[in-house]
Amino acid sequence: MLRSKFGLIPDRDVKLLPTGEPYLGLQALERGIVDGAAMSIPHLFIARKAGFKELVSFDKLGVEYPYTIVVVLRQTAAKSPDLVERVIKCIVEGIHIFKTDKSKSLAALRLYMKGADEGILEESYQHTRGTIDDAPYPSLQVVKAGLEMLSLQYPQAKQTDASLIIEPAFMKRIEESGFVRALDKR
Q1: Cβ distance 99 to 135 under 8 Å?
Q2: Global pTM value
Q3: Is residue 135 located within the same domain as residue 157?
Protein backbone atom coordinates (compact mmCIF):
# COMPACT_ATOMS: atom_id res chain seq x y z
CA MET A 1 0.00 0.00 0.00
CA LEU A 2 2.80 2.43 0.89
CA ARG A 3 4.51 1.68 -2.39
CA SER A 4 1.46 1.84 -4.65
CA LYS A 5 -0.24 4.89 -3.08
CA PHE A 6 2.71 6.99 -1.91
CA GLY A 7 5.79 5.68 -3.73
CA LEU A 8 7.42 4.80 -0.39
CA ILE A 9 9.48 1.67 0.01
CA PRO A 10 9.25 0.02 3.44
CA ASP A 11 12.61 -0.31 5.26
CA ARG A 12 14.21 2.17 2.87
CA ASP A 13 11.98 5.25 3.07
CA VAL A 14 10.10 4.38 6.23
CA LYS A 15 10.59 1.94 9.07
CA LEU A 16 7.44 0.01 9.91
CA LEU A 17 7.15 -1.01 13.53
CA PRO A 18 4.24 -3.23 14.56
CA THR A 19 2.89 -1.91 17.85
CA GLY A 20 0.18 -4.51 18.48
CA GLU A 21 -3.23 -3.46 19.71
CA PRO A 22 -4.46 -0.10 18.34
CA TYR A 23 -4.18 1.71 21.68
CA LEU A 24 -0.48 0.75 21.79
CA GLY A 25 0.12 2.75 18.58
CA LEU A 26 -1.33 5.81 20.29
CA GLN A 27 0.82 5.20 23.37
CA ALA A 28 3.91 4.86 21.17
CA LEU A 29 3.08 8.24 19.58
CA GLU A 30 2.53 9.88 22.96
CA ARG A 31 5.87 8.59 24.26
CA GLY A 32 7.80 9.57 21.12
CA ILE A 33 8.69 5.99 20.23
CA VAL A 34 7.25 6.43 16.72
CA ASP A 35 6.71 9.49 14.53
CA GLY A 36 3.43 8.28 13.05
CA ALA A 37 0.91 5.49 13.42
CA ALA A 38 -2.06 4.12 11.51
CA MET A 39 -5.20 4.70 13.57
CA SER A 40 -8.67 3.26 13.42
CA ILE A 41 -11.78 4.49 15.18
CA PRO A 42 -11.95 5.44 18.10
CA HIS A 43 -8.20 5.83 18.50
CA LEU A 44 -8.08 8.38 15.68
CA PHE A 45 -10.53 10.62 17.55
CA ILE A 46 -8.60 10.20 20.81
CA ALA A 47 -5.33 11.09 19.03
CA ARG A 48 -6.90 14.20 17.50
CA LYS A 49 -8.18 15.28 20.91
CA ALA A 50 -4.65 14.81 22.30
CA GLY A 51 -3.34 17.24 19.65
CA PHE A 52 -2.01 14.85 17.02
CA LYS A 53 -2.67 15.74 13.36
CA GLU A 54 -4.17 13.40 10.79
CA LEU A 55 -1.80 13.21 7.83
CA VAL A 56 -3.85 11.07 5.50
CA SER A 57 -7.22 9.35 5.53
CA PHE A 58 -7.21 5.88 4.01
CA ASP A 59 -10.98 6.21 3.53
CA LYS A 60 -10.62 9.43 1.52
CA LEU A 61 -7.87 7.87 -0.59
CA GLY A 62 -10.10 4.91 -1.33
CA VAL A 63 -7.70 2.50 0.36
CA GLU A 64 -9.52 -0.65 1.38
CA TYR A 65 -7.99 -1.85 4.62
CA PRO A 66 -8.78 -5.29 6.06
CA TYR A 67 -9.45 -4.59 9.70
CA THR A 68 -12.85 -6.13 10.35
CA ILE A 69 -13.43 -9.43 8.60
CA VAL A 70 -15.31 -12.55 9.62
CA VAL A 71 -13.83 -15.77 8.26
CA VAL A 72 -14.82 -19.42 8.28
CA LEU A 73 -13.05 -22.59 7.18
CA ARG A 74 -14.28 -23.90 3.82
CA GLN A 75 -15.13 -27.27 5.33
CA THR A 76 -17.24 -25.59 8.02
CA ALA A 77 -19.14 -23.58 5.41
CA ALA A 78 -19.69 -26.73 3.34
CA LYS A 79 -20.61 -28.96 6.29
CA SER A 80 -22.72 -26.46 8.26
CA PRO A 81 -24.11 -23.79 5.92
CA ASP A 82 -27.08 -23.23 8.23
CA LEU A 83 -24.69 -22.38 11.08
CA VAL A 84 -22.80 -19.92 8.88
CA GLU A 85 -26.07 -18.32 7.79
CA ARG A 86 -27.28 -17.98 11.40
CA VAL A 87 -24.00 -16.32 12.42
CA ILE A 88 -24.27 -13.84 9.53
CA LYS A 89 -27.90 -13.11 10.45
CA CYS A 90 -26.75 -12.33 14.00
CA ILE A 91 -24.17 -9.91 12.61
CA VAL A 92 -26.78 -8.26 10.36
CA GLU A 93 -29.22 -7.96 13.25
CA GLY A 94 -26.47 -6.47 15.43
CA ILE A 95 -25.74 -3.90 12.73
CA HIS A 96 -29.43 -3.04 12.58
CA ILE A 97 -29.64 -2.59 16.36
CA PHE A 98 -26.47 -0.49 16.33
CA LYS A 99 -27.87 1.81 13.65
CA THR A 100 -31.40 2.12 15.03
CA ASP A 101 -30.97 2.10 18.82
CA LYS A 102 -28.47 4.84 19.59
CA SER A 103 -28.82 4.67 23.37
CA LYS A 104 -28.17 0.90 23.42
CA SER A 105 -25.24 1.37 21.02
CA LEU A 106 -23.69 4.14 23.10
CA ALA A 107 -24.09 1.99 26.22
CA ALA A 108 -22.16 -0.82 24.48
CA LEU A 109 -19.47 1.59 23.30
CA ARG A 110 -19.22 2.99 26.83
CA LEU A 111 -18.73 -0.52 28.18
CA TYR A 112 -15.93 -1.43 25.76
CA MET A 113 -14.32 2.01 25.49
CA LYS A 114 -13.79 2.51 29.21
CA GLY A 115 -12.69 6.03 30.00
CA ALA A 116 -13.66 7.55 26.65
CA ASP A 117 -15.51 10.83 27.05
CA GLU A 118 -18.98 11.40 25.64
CA GLY A 119 -17.62 13.35 22.66
CA ILE A 120 -15.38 10.46 21.59
CA LEU A 121 -18.25 8.00 22.07
CA GLU A 122 -20.61 10.13 19.97
CA GLU A 123 -18.05 10.68 17.22
CA SER A 124 -17.25 6.96 17.15
CA TYR A 125 -20.94 6.09 16.95
CA GLN A 126 -21.66 8.56 14.14
CA HIS A 127 -18.63 7.49 12.10
CA THR A 128 -19.35 3.79 12.49
CA ARG A 129 -23.06 4.22 11.80
CA GLY A 130 -22.23 6.05 8.57
CA THR A 131 -19.74 3.50 7.30
CA ILE A 132 -21.15 0.11 8.23
CA ASP A 133 -23.29 -1.64 5.60
CA ASP A 134 -26.75 -3.02 6.41
CA ALA A 135 -25.88 -6.08 4.31
CA PRO A 136 -22.15 -6.67 4.86
CA TYR A 137 -21.04 -8.44 1.71
CA PRO A 138 -17.41 -9.60 1.63
CA SER A 139 -15.20 -7.20 -0.31
CA LEU A 140 -12.93 -8.43 -3.08
CA GLN A 141 -10.93 -5.17 -2.80
CA VAL A 142 -10.32 -5.68 0.92
CA VAL A 143 -9.05 -9.22 0.35
CA LYS A 144 -6.80 -8.01 -2.49
CA ALA A 145 -5.39 -5.29 -0.21
CA GLY A 146 -4.79 -7.88 2.52
CA LEU A 147 -2.98 -10.17 0.09
CA GLU A 148 -0.87 -7.24 -1.11
CA MET A 149 0.16 -6.52 2.49
CA LEU A 150 0.90 -10.18 3.14
CA SER A 151 3.00 -10.43 -0.02
CA LEU A 152 5.67 -8.21 1.53
CA GLN A 153 6.40 -10.97 4.04
CA TYR A 154 5.03 -13.94 2.09
CA PRO A 155 5.66 -13.45 -1.65
CA GLN A 156 3.40 -16.43 -2.51
CA ALA A 157 0.40 -14.34 -1.43
CA LYS A 158 0.68 -12.54 -4.79
CA GLN A 159 -0.23 -15.80 -6.50
CA THR A 160 -3.48 -16.17 -4.54
CA ASP A 161 -6.73 -15.49 -6.38
CA ALA A 162 -8.70 -13.21 -4.05
CA SER A 163 -12.00 -14.30 -5.58
CA LEU A 164 -11.43 -17.81 -4.20
CA ILE A 165 -11.29 -16.43 -0.66
CA ILE A 166 -14.59 -14.58 -0.49
CA GLU A 167 -18.04 -16.16 -0.50
CA PRO A 168 -20.86 -13.66 -1.09
CA ALA A 169 -23.52 -16.38 -1.55
CA PHE A 170 -24.44 -16.51 2.14
CA MET A 171 -25.11 -12.77 2.40
CA LYS A 172 -26.89 -12.77 -0.96
CA ARG A 173 -29.23 -15.54 0.18
CA ILE A 174 -29.97 -13.71 3.42
CA GLU A 175 -30.66 -10.43 1.63
CA GLU A 176 -32.82 -12.07 -1.05
CA SER A 177 -34.86 -13.82 1.66
CA GLY A 178 -36.03 -10.40 2.85
CA PHE A 179 -34.35 -10.77 6.27
CA VAL A 180 -32.55 -7.41 6.07
CA ARG A 181 -35.65 -5.48 4.93
CA ALA A 182 -37.79 -7.16 7.60
CA LEU A 183 -35.56 -5.75 10.34
CA ASP A 184 -36.80 -2.25 9.47
CA LYS A 185 -40.38 -3.33 10.08
CA ARG A 186 -39.73 -4.41 13.67
Answers
A1: no
A2: 0.81
A3: yes
